[in-house]
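re: that chain from earlier
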Amino acid sequence: SSEMLSGDRESVVKVVARELHIDRAKGDLLPQDKVLAIQNLQRSKHTVAMVGDGINDAPALTAANVGWAMGACGTALAAKSASVVGVNDDLLTIPKAIAHARACKSIVYENIAISILPKVSLAAFAVFGVYSPPLWLAVMADSGCLILVLLNGVRVFWL
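^ sequence. v structure.
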């Protein structure tokens, strides 16, 4: 779900939230009100991402699990308070960045599986006496896994 927290007038915030299909919106908030709202969401076991651009957003950016400062129009304080600083003011870069991060995370998990599963399998075969590979074969298998992990990791550049 999504929630918009803003220091702007409540009526304006509601209109913008409706246009952006945001579930809930609160306006006329002071910086400490935004922080309190974020902390309440976190207490409810939500992971909170905050997007902001100004001095008034800095405390909320710091309080959020992930703070995203908008780059071109943002203040230096907002940028220092955030986990991520966007290089432009295009809000559409946020879902793209999230999708990219999720794809990278998947590749990391794949690489862990590629590197560990063959070793665990060979070790289990050896322990239970099913198959005891010669050392050169184990080294070649490990080198092959290394090459697969590298090639799989390079996919990040084409996401």
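Strands lie at 3-5, 24-26, 49-52, 66-69, 84-85.
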